[in-house]
Amino acid sequence: MGSENYDDVLVKNVCNIYNKLSTLESLSPSKEVNMIFTQLVEMCVPPTSINVTELSEQVQEWRSKLIKICGTAEGLMESHYSTILGSFDSPLDHLHLFPYHNNYIKLGQLEFNILSQHYSRIPNQIAFIGSGPLPLTSVVLASNHLTNTTFHNYDIDASANALGCNLVSSDPDLSKRMKFHTIDIMKVTSTLKEYDVVFLAALVGMDKEAKIQVINHLYKHMAVGAILMLRSAHGARAFLYPVVDPCDLPGFEVLSVYHPTDEVINSVVIAKKIAHSNDQTMMFPDKCSVAHQALNNHGGNMIEELTVAE
After folding, report:
1. Which segments within 69-196 are labelled E, that is strand?
2. How confident is the model at residue 295 (pLDDT cuts 50, 70, 90)?
3. Vertex 220, ends 214 and 224: CA angle to 5°?
4. How many CB atoms lie within 10 A of CB 7?
5. What is the pLDDT of residues 280-291, one digit of tens each?
6. pTM surpassing 0.90?
């Protein structure tokens, strides 16, 4: 009963934040905007039993709008800080000025650890889809973990890529290993076969339908055996980012789903493209129900292994 009351209060409070944000003239960084988003994140980070997919249609509707508002605000914040960082002679020496830099350090370490558990080789080439104006995941992985790997950063926005490219242009190593491509990923086909690992940013496909379209496109064009790393959200964090369920990944074997319980907001899903067969395809709905059952039972303070039977 107490848990239900807590969840009801949480939904009401997040809804109030949504109403505040939706009336703002601008979502660019400012004292007011920063304060409201800080409140929102602090509400959504603590572990909770809430499952956003079971909430009312009205709540689902404003949650969808809130995710888009968060995505817009995140893009504006990253552009703001990327512009500041780019004004230095050596931008990468000043990354600590970005308030969430430490989160990216932790997320990079987490994603590298998960990747290492499931992929024994060092990737030669990685694609990061939706790299944005502040491509910190690529920078952290390339600098700290995968120091010989080439990173191909894809973004549909030319100005975002220009800012991202400017951050690494003065670094003799990263400027050679970080490539930037301005294109809609849905128009990239045969090139996707060249990548050992593909990262899909949380805000590429901000609603379920768009996300699944991108995932299906990646499945069609990635090499068999290549790894797909996705960002998802769990519990109340799903008010901030879209959720990717294992059953949203037909054609992929889901290797692991990890839900952080610290200040790293995003869950991490790692999957491998498998060769298509009717037997394996028929197993995906069952895999999804197993995943939901496991995550409901354990809350998410763990890595949940989800392996398709050979």
Report:
1. 125-129, 150-155, 178-182
2. very low
3. 120
4. 17
5. 433 344 445 444
6. no
Cα separation, 258 vs 263, in Å, equals 14
Of the CATH numbers 3.30.110.40, 3.40.50.1370, 3.40.50.720, 3.40.50.150, which one belongs to the domain with range 1-310? 3.40.50.150
Beta-sheet strand order (sheet of 150-155): 178-182, 150-155, 125-129, 197-200, 227-232, 267-273, 252-258, 303-304
Among 285, 279, 290, 291, smallest CA distance to 232 is for 291
Cα separation, 245 vs 248, whole angstroms? 5
Q: Please give the residue that has the higher pLDDT: either 238 or 301.
A: 238
Give the angle subtended at the CA of 295 by the CAs of 290 and 296, to the nearest 5°: 100
User: Over the stretch 47-85, which tens digit does the pLDDT of each residue have?
Assistant: 888 998 899 999 999 999 999 999 999 999 999 999 999
Residue located via tokens 């350090």: 105
